[in-house]
UniProtKB/TrEMBL annotation:
SUPFAM superfamilies: Obg GTP-binding protein C-terminal domain (SSF102741), Obg GTP-binding protein N-terminal domain (SSF82051), P-loop containing nucleoside triphosphate hydrolases (SSF52540)
UniProt lineage: Bacteria, Bacillati, Actinomycetota, Actinomycetes, Jiangellales
Keyword Nucleotide-binding among UniProt keywords: yes
Organism: Phytoactinopolyspora halotolerans
Name of the protein described by the UniProt record: GTPase Obg
Function: An essential GTPase which binds GTP, GDP and possibly (p)ppGpp with moderate affinity, with high nucleotide exchange rates and a fairly low GTP hydrolysis rate. Plays a role in control of the cell cycle, stress response, ribosome biogenesis and in those bacteria that undergo differentiation, in morphogenesis control.
Length: 452
């Protein structure tokens, strides 16, 4: 089982709203007490919140299915149902939320940033709330709406100031251990680092973070090795530092070719060309490595990048390196716009004047008419089709919205098949003689217009 996970698919389900209650007040000597059914409770939301103590998405890798609580039904005596419990999911700073289609929903940066990723369903109205001067004692209530269900992808992009890049065993983890309090796993073989490591460094009055990317190799941007998986962790860095192993004995390897290979992979990954660079010639505690570093130093410097000769073992050159990193970080912070509270962009569904559309569809059985719209589809979900009076109330609402007039306009005939909604649609044979007038009802729970 992995100890670090930076990409997961979450299957989320918000809570369903509770049903409204159809109840009549009963009390001695008060036979006509009136409707007193309460409303159903709201379904719980699924909320993502940035938590400073969360550093991995491992919990969601192990348990990717999360569901909020359902609202409870209303009761008589004007008692509303309880709201469902929200599910609050802590995520690391720097988590990007996107759909399966790749559309970014939110970039969660900053401790405390919240996103309601799945909203709970509304509770249904009880018959007390549905009473009016024309409908004094409704014998029905509205059903609670289902909560949203969706899949989202969470991707963690580490929030670090300096990103360390280089071949496996270049000494990135050793460098982080030498300049910070971090204690990453270190060994003398390739791909020791299987997860990004972060360390906090203090240089003078500047405090900043550094992060390494598990060993890049040629072809990493195309999926070879481990680096392609973790390149996203340097996207937020102010600068990149090439950590070069000057003591490697591998054939065909030298500091300049190592830099060229890593730069080629960064270019193929994209989006990192503007980041300042520095080159760290590492392991100069080895005599041969020091000679090689001195030999190539001027040639690397000619590329316009600052060059540092260091040893994570003897700590030589680390002070100069960390202060240069601090200078770059300070300059980047000064150039950045003033910090503002993170704002999430909300994209509410556009509301048009009509609120619905009616389209003609051809099927193997003939023609049918499909009604789509936020209001009609919500009203259908709220309707108890076992209650004739509730069905009549739905017919009234659709008629007032203008659905019947639009069906006539597009050519619908009595008996034609009408569909309201998408996948979970309600299908019925249209009968235009059912007109508005739910106040002309028979016994409670019935609608005389549906008889015959």
């Amino acid at each position: 089982m992995p100890s670090f996970v930076d990409r997961v698919v979450l299957h989320l389900a918000a809570g369903n709203g509770g049903h409204g209650c159809a109840s009549v007040h009963r009390e001695k000597f008060k036979p006509l007490g009136g409707p007193d059914g309460g409303n159903g409770g709201r379904g719980g939301d699924v909320i993502l919140v940035v938590d400073a103590n969360t550093t991995t998405l491992l919990d969601y890798h192990r348990a990717p299915h999360r569901k909020a609580g359902n609202g409870t039904a209303g009761e008589g005596g004007h008692r509303n149902g309880a709201d469902g419990d929200d599910v609050v999911l802590p995520v690391p700073d720097g988590t990007v939320v996107s759909t399966r289609d790749g559309e970014v929903v939110a970039d969660l940066v900053g401790v405390g940033t919240k996103l309601v990723v799945a909203r709970g369903g509304r509770g249904g109205l009880g018959n007390a709330a549905l009473a009016s001067t024309r409908r004094k004692a409704p014998g029905f209530a509205l059903l609670g709406e289902p909560g949203e269900t969706l899949d989202v992808i969470l991707e963690l992009k580490s929030v670090a100031d300096i990103g360390l890049v280089g071949f496996p065993s270049a000494g990135k983890s050793s460098l982080i251990a030498a300049v910070s309090a971090a204690r990453p796993k270190i060994a003398d073989y390739p791909f020791t680092t299987l997860v990004p490591n972060l360390g906090v460094v203090e240089a003078g009055e500047v405090r900043f973070t550094i992060a390494d990317v598990p060993g890049l190799i040629e072809g990493a941007s195309e999926g070879r090795g481990l680096g392609h998986t973790f390149l996203r962790h340097v996207e937020r860095c102010s600068a990149l530092a090439h950590i070069i192993d000057c003591a490697t004995l591998e054939p065909g390897r030298d500091p300049l070719s190592d830099i060229d290979v890593i730069e080629a992979e960064l270019e193929r990954y994209g989006g990192l060309a503007e980041r300042p660079r520095m080159v760290v010639l590492n392991k100069i505690d080895v005599p041969e490595a020091r000679e090689l570093a001195e030999f190539v130093r001027d040639e690397v410097r000619a590329r316009g990048w600052p060059v540092f000769m260091v040893s994570a073992v003897s700590r030589e050159g680390l002070r100069e390196l960390t202060f240069e990193m601090a200078r770059i970080v300070s300059a980047a912070r000064a150039a950045a716009p003033p910090a503002e509270p993170t704002r999430l962009v909300l994209r509410p569904t556009a509301v048009d004047d009509e609120g619905f559309t009616v389209t003609r569809e051809r099927t193997h059985d003939g023609e049918r008419y499909r009604v789509r719209g936020t209001k009609p589809e919500r009203w259908v979900r709220q309707t108890d089709f076992t209650n004739d009076e509730a069905v009549g109330y739905l017919a009234d609402r659709l008629a007032r919205l203008g659905v019947e007039e639009e069906l006539v306009r597009v050519g619908a005939q009595p008996g034609d098949e009408v569909v309201i909604g998408g996948e979970d649609a309600v299908v019925f044979d249209w009968e235009p003689t059912i007109q508005s007038g739910a106040e002309r009802l028979g016994p409670r729970g019935t609608d005389t217009r549906l008889n015959g």
